[in-house]
């Protein structure tokens, strides 16, 4: 009987130790579960925050794309305007060259006309002198006849 009691006591001690180990393990698992739940909550909040941030970034991206599209349209319009202005400038350069050539022709013609006017003025003076001389001669001859 003593053996049976000792065996029973030994069995109870083993069961108590086993229970204590299980109780300790249960507490550790409970703490670990609490920690995992806290980490899960933290990760869930981070996920929510990141989802919100992603939505904001997508909206910002859409706005940026719209802005880029508007700017590209503006660039295209300005490029067309610049091309039109370059064509206009080229036409004006051609007009300037043409007018410069015409101006040279007119200047040359003006010089020629000035020379002709000088020649005609000289010829006119000669004719006036000749007419004056002939008038004087005629006047003298008329005086001599009288």
TrEMBL record:
Domain of life: Eukaryota
Keywords, ordered alphabetically: Coiled coil
Coiled coil spans: 19-143
Protein name: Uncharacterized protein
